[in-house]
From TrEMBL:
<keyword id="KW-0134">Cell wall</keyword>
<feature type="active site" description="Charge relay system">
    <location>
        <position position="93"/>
    </location>
</feature>
<dbReference type="InterPro" id="IPR015500">
    <property type="entry name" value="Peptidase_S8_subtilisin-rel"/>
</dbReference>
<feature type="active site" description="Charge relay system">
    <location>
        <position position="384"/>
    </location>
</feature>
<keyword id="KW-0732">Signal</keyword>
<dbReference type="Pfam" id="PF02225">
    <property type="entry name" value="PA"/>
</dbReference>
<keyword id="KW-0964">Secreted</keyword>
<dbReference type="InterPro" id="IPR023828">
    <property type="entry name" value="Peptidase_S8_Ser-AS"/>
</dbReference>
<keyword id="KW-0720">Serine protease</keyword>
<dbReference type="InterPro" id="IPR023827">
    <property type="entry name" value="Peptidase_S8_Asp-AS"/>
</dbReference>
<comment type="similarity">
    <text>Belongs to the peptidase S8 family.</text>
</comment>
<dbReference type="InterPro" id="IPR046450">
    <property type="entry name" value="PA_dom_sf"/>
</dbReference>
<keyword id="KW-0645">Protease</keyword>
<dbReference type="InterPro" id="IPR034213">
    <property type="entry name" value="S8_Vpr-like"/>
</dbReference>
<dbReference type="InterPro" id="IPR036852">
    <property type="entry name" value="Peptidase_S8/S53_dom_sf"/>
</dbReference>
<dbReference type="InterPro" id="IPR000209">
    <property type="entry name" value="Peptidase_S8/S53_dom"/>
</dbReference>
<keyword id="KW-0378">Hydrolase</keyword>
């Protein structure tokens, strides 16, 4: 890479883990679902869409017609094919993404006549460096893409990580960039770069019409959603079964015949755990996470096919089930529940640290999405699948309105989105942004709200007022009158909203919205809600957010420590801080004994943003795998600690 003129720095990329499931193959349900309410006559014809990913299998019959070219930033050639088995761990992710956007054969994508370009930035196993991702963005912009889709990212929740900055530059040059929000939900603050880019269109995952397998404990009134693992037999259980504890799955499992075996993730591959349950005569296996949050994976890496259903659950759900097993002979009902327009648990939530922006901004189907893969079709899930739905939808709007800027296209898609509800209340803004994409509504909209996400920042005074400006355009052929409705909010908040105003056809107006907060009258932390803008019978729900004094966002993220590029005797380190700090300390511990090894870094009086530097090899005594304990002391002398796995060469 030393010969590439655009290489300034190299940043390791942590790709999103694709949440994968496999079931009966069928033509994708999500595309007709998006169009059933208001079908579009547009197909994306003439719109160039670049897919920055693992490559594209352009020989697939459903992609041959639309594939026009691209570039391989891994092997530095004009052949952006997926990684083949003889090249390393094979990939299929980019082909799946491309099919959602513009498949045009047995399966139809959202924009089946859009022009597809592949930019391979992630190599074997879906891994790459930030320099490859940034170079792919640069190449796609130079190639004249109208839209770029990026179903990739890392865990750094900050707006000024290098890939986020590169995305901002691409949008400034007239390219719409659509990015997956990440699969680290359902906790807050889990969106990662580059979806944190202020100018990107960041996408969360909702459900198309689905039948979802669940466990139901009627006595405890508890329902647990199952995530089937790829490569196992389809989950088809629909009656009561006894659960037994299979431990970690390393040893022979006793008394498991015709029962469901519960095992903890870790130590051995999923396929070995599944095989142990199968050998014990189990009807099915459930693997629960060994760290916070849900997960998904595959049992397809073992010898032969797994002949029993295998599913994943979160750590919390698994530990709850284990507690029931240890207390009694425990039986639980297996069933299906119907789902539509729900926010998936895995979809990463916002907001973004430092600028407190609301992400995701929109959602689209990302659960059980069937699309093209090398050699056929496969059902996958993740925000990686939601993002290309939006890229395809944007291509339809771009075809209908070829002169619209990225800002206007984004505004139309957000303005026309459908806010989703959980029971009788709207999902929170940081779950869904403006709601679920509706492409044809965006094409036909008479109103565009350019910046509908109202981020008021962090309140750190006893009394504080913040104002944001919202630009509204009447793109219809008739005069429209708008007015705001006062939100019903708790004590401590007051609003100053514009009076009603009228816009003639083609007229724009920028209006201020002021929020005043008495911080002592409110709880510390994240506050969010909705401000309604009305025009006749139409209501546009604008999400707002602010942080009162302090919140539970991570104070340090993205620790990297690796050999310096083009050097064998020095290390580079990077860590991201959303705010300035009095000090940052990184201590290394043995991952098995948890004994202290050494203090790797101690940095005082740090600014907010990316903290980086170099160290000579001789300054680092230890090598190998460690638990890095990161301690941040803030300017007001509060201390926060985080742990990450770290490998030092």
């Amino acid at each position: 890479m030393g010969s590439l003129h655009f290489v300034k720095k190299s940043y390791p990329v942590r790709t999103y883990q694709t949440n994968i499931s496999k079931s009966e193959l069928q033509i994708n349900r999500s595309v007709p679902f998006l169009q059933e309410e208001n079908p579009s006559t547009y197909t994306g014809e003439g719109v160039k869409v670049g897919v920055i990913d693992t490559g594209v299998d352009y020989s697939h019959p459903d992609l041959q017609r639309n594939f026009k070219g691209g570039y391989d930033l891994v092997d530095l050639d004009d052949n952006p094919m997926e990684t083949l088995p003889e090249q390393g761990v094979p990939t299929l992710h980019g082909t799946h993404v491309a099919g959602i956007i513009a498949a045009n054969g047995n399966m139809k994508g959202v924009a089946p006549e859009a022009e597809l370009y592949g930019y391979r930035a992630l190599g074997p196993g879906g891994r790459g460096t930030s320099v490859q991702v940034i170079a792919a963005i640069e190449k796609a912009v130079k190639d004249g893409m109208d839209i770029i889709n990026m179903s990739l990212g890392n865990t750094v929740n900050g707006p000024d990580w290098p890939t986020s900055i590169a995305v901002n530059h691409a949008v400034d040059r007239g390219v719409s960039v659509v990015i997956a929000n990440g699969n680290a939900g359902p906790n807050n603050w889990t969106v990662g770069s580059p979806a944190t880019s202020p100018k990107a269109l960041s996408v969360g995952a909702s459900t198309p019409p689905l039948s979802i397998p669940v466990l139901q404990d009627r006595f405890n009134k508890k329902q647990i959603q199952l995530q089937p693992l790829m490569g196992a037999k389809q989950w088809d259980l629909q009656k009561d079964y006894k659960l037994v504890d299979g431990g970690i799955g390393e040893e022979t499992i006793q008394n498991a015949k015709n029962k469901i075996v519960l095992m903890q993730r870790g130590k051995i591959p999923f396929s070995e755990k599944a095989r142990q349950a199968e050998l014990a005569g189990a009807r099915a296996a459930i693997i629960y996470n060994n760290e916070e949050g849900p997960f998904a994976g595959s049992v397809a890496d073992g010898p032969g096919d797994v002949q029993i259903p295998v599913a994943a659950v979160s750590k919390a759900d698994g530990e709850w089930l284990l507690q029931q097993i240890n207390q009694q002979d425990y039986w639980i009902d297996t069933a299906y529940r119907q789902s539509q327009d729900e926010i998936t648990d895995f979809s990463s939530r916002g907001p973004v640290t430092a600028n407190w922006h609301i992400k995701p901004e929109i959602v689209a189907p990302g659960a059980a999405i069937n699309s093209t893969v090398p050699g056929g079709y496969m059902e996958l899930q993740g925000t990686s699948m939601a993002s290309p739905h939006v890229a395809g939808g944007l291509a339809l709007v771009k075809q209908a309105h070829p002169d619209w800027s990225p800002e206007k296209l984004k505004g139309a898609l957000l303005t026309s989105a459908l806010p989703l509800k959980k029971a009788d209340n709207l999902y929170d803004p940081i779950d869904q942004g403006m709601g679920r994409m509706r492409p044809q509504h965006a094409i036909e909209t008479g109103t565009i709200i350019y910046n509908p996400m109202l981020a008021f920042g962090k309140i750190d005074k006893l009394k504080d007022s913040r104002s944001v400006k919202v630009k509204i355009e009447n793109v219809s052929k008739e005069t429209k009158t708008y007015y705001f409705e006062l939100p019903k909010d708790p004590h401590g908040i007051s609003w100053q909203l514009p009076s009603s105003f009228t816009l003639k056809p083609g007229e724009k107006k920028t209006v201020p919205i002021q929020l005043s907060v008495v911080s002592a009258m409110m709880d510390e932390g994240l506050h969010q809600g909705w401000v309604a803008l009305k025009e006749k019978e139409k209501t546009y729900q604008l999400p707002y957010l602010f942080v009162n004094k302090e919140a539970d966002y991570p104070k340090a993220m993205g620790l990297e420590f690796a050999l310096k590029t083009f050097s064998d005797d020095a290390y580079e380190y990077r860590i991201y801080l959303p705010e300035e700090a009095a000090s940052v300390t990184v201590d290394l511990y043995d991952p098995q004994s948890l004994t202290f090894k050494e203090t790797l870094l101690f940095i005082e009086d740090t600014e907010a943003g990316v903290i980086e530097g170099t160290m000579q090899k001789r300054e680092v005594a230890e090598r190998g795998e460690f638990i890095a304990n990161i301690t941040v002391e803030t300017k007001d002398r509060k201390t926060y600690s985080y742990q990450e796995a770290l490998f030092i060469e």
